[in-house]
Design a protein that fits this description.
By secondary structure, the chain is an alpha/beta fold. It is 42% helix and 16% strand. The chain has 11 helices and 10 strands. Strand 1 and strand 2 form a beta hairpin. Helix 5 crosses helix 6 and helix 9 runs antiparallel to helix 10. The two termini are 25 Å apart. 36% of the residues are buried. Bound molecules: acetoacetyl-coenzyme A (CAA). Acetoacetyl-coenzyme A binds next to helix 2, strand 6 and helix 4.
Length: 261
């Protein structure tokens, strides 16, 4: 991973067991160019490999989480070119992190911004958040998973409405539609996000990794297969020190001290 200080389009910080990655291209409303992609993925994978980190927050500014893929960077690209560079493919690496990823959206999360927000395990929105997939207005379609993840989150008819009209929806509609985990007040938004992240980071990392893997599996498999794999994973957790520790702590009315093993 590139040294943290060499990042130009993001800022990173660590507070306890929570790492925060803040997209920082204010002049372009945090549009996601290839440098942002490279830096976000490098930072996230670096934190994922760090055993002291139990949750990663990916956020933007108050005005914009991200206003989409960088249209100015894409404008002159050709089909063979973007195929060869496998444009946007690396964003999927965020879906493979073992450490829970919390995406925290204030302001615009449009196009690729909405799609990256949907890569989070938990998606928190401030009351000012605006979500949309406006690619159709540019003569294209979503290209970082929007047609798939938005449809799974909000269902066919809401997804078609957003993707075919390019309109934006506010935080209240997004929560009602099942796109966001929680809506939080604009004031103190990042503090509330940090509280959620600290709570997740305070759990056994073995258990959070198993939980995210199994919830994600619900999108990939049949109910029968998913329930069977969940049961196997549940059984397997009884081979961990953290299962013994968690249950002993409950019975003896004390706080668990996770070993993450
Ligand atoms: N790419 C590149 N630059 C962008 C951008 C984007 N997606 N979004 C905003 N910017 C730039 C603007 O060009 C502008 O730069 P200049 O000052 O140099 O002109 C600056 O950010 C500020 O933007 P605005 O002046 O437009 O700000 P606004 O407050 O009037 O409007 C907005 C805000 C409604 C979000 C508007 O900027 C907008 O519509 N942005 C584009 C949204 C969009 O279409 N996103 C989808 C991109 S395609 C995609 O994401 C493909 C995919 O699926 C992966």
């Amino acid at each position: 991973m590139a040294p943290m200080s060499s990042f130009e389009t993001i800022q990173t910080s660590v507070e306890g067991a929570v790492a925060t990655i803040t997209i920082d291209r204010p002049k372009a409303l945090n549009a996601l160019n290839s440098q942002v992609l490279e830096e976000v993925v490098a930072a996230a994978e670096g934190f994922d490999a760090d055993e002291n980190i139990g949750a990663i927050v990916l956020t933007g500014s108050e005005k914009a989480f991200a206003a989409g893929a960088d249209i100015k960077e894409m404008q002159t690209k050709s089909y063979p070119g973007i195929r060869m560079e496998r444009m946007f493919e690396d964003w999927e690496r965020l879906a493979k992190l073992e450490t829970p990823l919390i995406t925290a959206v204030s302001g615009y999360a449009l196009g690729g911004g909405c799609e990256v927000a949907m890569l989070g395990d938990i998606l928190l929105a401030s009351e000012s958040a605006k979500f949309g997939q406006p690619e159709i207005t540019l003569g294209i379609i979503p290209g970082m998973g929007g047609t798939q993840r938005l449809t799974r989150a909000v269902g066919k008819y809401k997804a078609m409405d957003l993707i075919l009209t390019g309109r934006t929806m506010d935080a209240e509609e997004a929560e009602r539609s099942g796109l966001v985990s929680r809506v939080l007040p604009v004031e103190g938004f990042q503090k509330e996000v940090a509280k959620v992240a600290q709570k997740v980071a305070g759990m056994s990392q073995v258990a959070t990794a198993a939980a995210t893997k199994m919830v994600d599996a619900a999108y990939e498999t049949t109910l029968t297969q998913g329930v069977a794999t969940e049961r196997d994973t549940f059984w397997a957790l009884f081979a961990t020190e953290d299962q013994s520790e968690g249950m002993d702590a409950f019975v003896n009315k004390r706080k668990p001290e996770w070993k993450n093993s």
